[in-house]
Write a structure and sequence with these properties.
Two copies of one chain form a homodimer.
Chain A (H helix, E strand, L loop, with lengths): L1 H4 L9 H9 L41 E9 L4 H19 L33 E6 L1 H4 E2 L2 E2 L31 E7 L2 H14 L4 E9 L1 E2 L30 H5 L14 E10 L1 H4 L4 H8 L36 H5 L10 E2 L2 E7 L5 E11 L2 H11 L11 E3 L3 E5 L11 H4 L1
Antiparallel strand pairs in A: 1-5, 1-6, 2-5, 3-4, 7-10, 8-11, 8-12, 8-13, 9-11, 10-11
Chain lengths: ~425, ~425
């Protein structure tokens, strides 16, 4: 709907381009600098701030759509990496505020040069776009050798995640030097941002993989309606929310954790979780609810109450068995089953065509943010293995990545400045 | 945004499910029959009519998101095919009106049976969902033998599209027995519909391929804002619109065309067109505009005027050359270059991960509707071949399908009743 309601974010030159081209006049293009004023209070026209103590896109209320990209740096020159990060930051400042990349955008400048922006978001509002960057272990070293002069700068915790029981990881979808998470309420805006960042990277970094998510599966604010995953269940009811008192402790790297360049940042885990939806769909309703530990309709825990009722792991059913079954997902993932460990989830539903066996290739692109990877590892170790989480019969983890997301920045900083500046 | 503004379309049983399960009472589930009344005039809460002289999803103003699926019928039993089409129709009636599949939906009925609906659209409005079905040549005959007793029922024009110069078709993405186009403003609603139709088909039809489209690239109503494709250009400005005087003549099979079962229907062409976006992005602005024949900013034709100005193929620039270049896309695709042939386009932008060469796998999933496949063939023959449409350097056709979409139906009909009833 955004497109139709959209407040134009850019002043289009319109017929100026036509005239210039028809006349063959290279100097006929002007810089598009002014911007239209919003004519209606469209929430998508109000950009999310790019600057701040933390990067946006983590505690920001989860937007509806995702484009996630992982890149490998193809240059080994520190200078080129720094230039890339500076150019990306400059572009991200503009993109997140609803502007095109570069001074001249897609329709101004000289007609004899390629446009600075690819143009497919012309006329669309900012749409809540956030761009969040993270650095993988392989950015710091490869084959035991430091890269980019980053000897000793890798956080001890920034190593490939351990193998979990049941993992079936595709190497092409695992690891990677740099991750960029683009979230927006209009997918065209998220795709446009990633596409332009990839373009800027040409000759310095290339796409390892990219994943679109069509629907969010978590809320990160208490003000949001809880969405549903492709098992048909409300997902993220008990997720950490930006309003929680302990949210800083769960999400942000603290001064006592170090390293300095990462304080105020967070660790990002990304895992593509394929769902065996055809098998799931044959499970009786009561079975599905027992596997999840919640009612499918209301989302309320099987221990009773509505969606937001506290989970009572001790409650018993009329048969004397635990109301929330021993192997149910909410029990296994609960902080009480994991030494208090919590993570902020920010995943998305996806469908990637067909599985080649006559079914849809569907699943959940899992993203979480946490102060330490140990939080995720603790919970995933509990969940993994066919003898634990009952959900494992219906899911397969196909990709894995861990990235250290630096803190936010001010008006003059660049992504990774604390590390490479 | 839909999710947050959404008017609940279904009366959720909420805690009823919990109580029934906790008590182990199989009879504790009730039928969810009542529906919430809309509390605000949300356009997405008003469903698109399923019944009518024509199928919806053709002239319906193009919705924002697409899930397109092509299936192969795996049974050779006519009775099973008819049953499938009847069950699909029943499901489509409910889904398009914002209801779940089946009488019991996803949370009512007996907890000892699998839910009739998969549940991920619970709480979401109808979101403009349309479901449009078409039958491919291979439904009628395979290896020279008629299937399902359909001897002599295949329209003469329903044959595989001819090979076009430059085609690089993937056999797995080409052909197919049945196509279903799901369009909605919320992608979760479109995916939910396709997923449930695929589920219903189990044992009778399986998925050949499926494609999501994140953003429409055509308008089909004069009331719509023209969207942009991934070349950054407005697309579909000169598309046939539902308000056009000749729209019936362009889109619908007429009584004089036959066969009878297809009168009031239309032919659907689907082609996945991959874009070489990295190459395109290096083309100067003037070059891009000359290849398309329009200004990138305004969308106005290079012969002058704003986006909706008539294209003047005879106009000359200051240099005496045609203002709209000889090989430009708008010139080659123009009815005047194709004996008056027109088609109704209804395509979508897509990104399918990575091309494996460090770039995004991006393109346009082309869909068009026309009274006769000859209209598409006429235009595509003009466009195809590297010596014709200048755009061919930047695109590759990777899939192809032709499907005959039956007319609309009334309160009691089923999809394909005129053919198989």
């Amino acid at each position: 709907m955004t497109e139709r309601r959209g407040v134009s974010r850019r002043s289009l030159l319109g017929a100026a381009g036509v005239g210039a081209l028809a006349a063959g006049a290279a100097g006929g293009y002007a810089v598009a600098a002014t911007r239209d004023e919003p004519v209606a209070p469209d929430p998508d026209a109000v950009p999310v701030a790019f600057e701040g103590r933390h990067q946006a896109g983590i505690l920001t209320p989860a937007q509806d759509r995702l484009h996630f990209v992982v890149l490998d740096v193809t240059t080994e020159s520190r200078d080129e990496l720094v230039s890339l990060l500076k150019e990306w930051t400059q572009a991200a400042r503009r993109l997140t505020q609803g502007n095109e990349v570069g001074v001249y955008g897609a329709v101004a400048g000289t007609p004899l040069a390629p446009p600075e922006d690819t143009g497919e978001a012309l006329g669309l509002p900012a749409s809540g776009l956030t761009l969040t960057i993270g650095f993988g272990p392989s950015l710091f070293e490869r084959d035991g050798k430091a890269r980019f002069g980053l000897d000793g700068r890798r956080p001890d915790e920034l190593v490939d995640l351990p193998a979990f029981s049941g993992d079936r990881l595709d190497p092409a979808l695992t690891g990677g030097d740099i991750a960029i998470q683009a979230c927006a309420n209009d997918p065209q805006v998220a795709v446009h941002a990633v596409r332009n960042l990839v373009r800027i990277a040409f000759g310095r970094a290339s796409v390892r993989y990219s994943q679109l998510g069509f629907g969010r599966t978590s809320s990160t604010s208490a003000a949001q309606v809880t969405p549903r995953n492709l098992f048909g269940f409300k997902d993220g009811t008990a997720n950490v929310k930006s309003e929680d008192r302990d949210v800083d402790d769960v999400v942000w790297v603290q001064g006592s954790d170090g390293p300095d360049w990462l304080v105020g940042g967070s660790y990002l885990v990304a895992r593509r979780i394929d769902m065996r939806i055809e098998t799931w769909d044959r499970e009786p309703l009561a079975g599905q609810e027992a596997i999840i530990g919640r009612a499918k309709g209301s989302g309320g825990p099987l221990s009773g109450g509505d969606e937001h009722a506290a989970i009572d792991l001790a409650a018993k059913g009329a048969d004397g068995e635990p109301a929330i079954p021993t192997l149910s997902h909410v029990r296994m993932a609960h902080p009480d089953s994991n030494g208090g460990a919590k993570i902020l989830r920010r995943g998305y539903n996806f469908v990637n065509g067909t599985d080649g066996l006559g079914q849809l290739a569907a699943g959940l692109f899992f993203i979480s943010f946490q102060r330490s990877p140990a939080q995720f590892v603790r919970i995933q170790r509990t969940l993994a293995g066919s003898t634990n989480d009952a959900l494992n019969e219906y899911i397969v983890h196909r990709s894995s990545g861990l990235f250290a997301c630096p803190p936010g920045l001010g008006a003059k900083g660049f992504w990774g400045e604390g590390l490479l500046g």
